[in-house]
Amino acid sequence: MQWDVRTLSDPVMIESALPGCEFLVRVDEGDVDFDALREEHAGRDVEPTSDPETIAERAFEEGERYAAVMQVSVGPVNPTFETVVTIDHREQPAMEASGEGSTGDSSFEMHSWMDLTATDDGIGVDWETEADVFGRIASMGQRVINPAANQVVKRFFSSVQSEIREREIAEGGTVEAAESAEETSDDRGIVDRILGRSEGS
Q1: What pLDDT is stored for residue 151 in this prediction?
Q2: CA nearest neighbour of 69 among 23, 37, 110, 32
Q3: C-alpha angle 75/132/150, rounded to 5°?
Q4: pLDDT above 70: residue 176
Q5: For FRET with 133, which of 63, 80, 143, 171 sits at 20 to 30 Å CA-CA?
């Protein structure tokens, strides 16, 4: 169970599981030079781990800022957003964050929270995101934006679950055990309950 909780506090795991994410790194206060970050982190290969000391050293921290570059599919377009997120509150198992991102002709501002709840099969995740979207993407309307956002969330948690199974095998488990767990979990595993919503304007 603690492995599941730590997973969602690890920027490396989040980066690996988040669809279209080029990098997710801690940054200092002030303007963020995304071109320099792209050059610095191009081709890097940082493996997720279950080592508690390693995760504790790099886990999300309250008050810290993180920069990310992420491509998303929204209707007929695939914009790449340069995003800065601030961890407003972090007290396991809850976390709140706010941020803003931009691409050539669109931008957004968001606030989100996530709360983890222990269950018999793994972890339940309650989440909510409120976002204001501007520019070309905003003109597409919520019928396009909300399904796209929910699809990203679904793919993210599916990737997290897959990453955990790979780590379990690497740390002494067996492929057969992982496959058996997958077959009996009914796509539950780490996240047997995801309650959430995304709102935008």
Answers
A1: 81
A2: 23
A3: 45
A4: no
A5: 63
Q: How many domains does the chain have?
A: 1
* Structure token pair of residue 87: 């961890």
Question: Which domain covers residue 96, as residue numbers?
Answer: 2-200
Quote the tokens at residue 95. Answer: 């976390």
For residue 166, the model assigns a pLDDT of 73
Answering whether pTM is above 0.85, one says no
Task: Assess contact for 78 and 41: CB atoms under 8 A.
Answer: no
64-111, pLDDT tens digit by residue?
999 999 999 888 889 999 999 999 999 877 899 999 999 999 999 999
Q: What is the CATH number of the domain that holds 193?
A: 3.30.530.20
Confidence of residue 200 (pLDDT cuts 50, 70, 90): low
Report yes or no: 117 and 124 within 8 Å, Cβ to Cβ. yes
Predicted pLDDT at 173: 53
Torsion angle of C-alpha atoms 94, 133, 20, 119, degrees rounded to 10? 30
Q: How confident is the model at residue 201 (pLDDT cuts 50, 70, 90)?
A: low
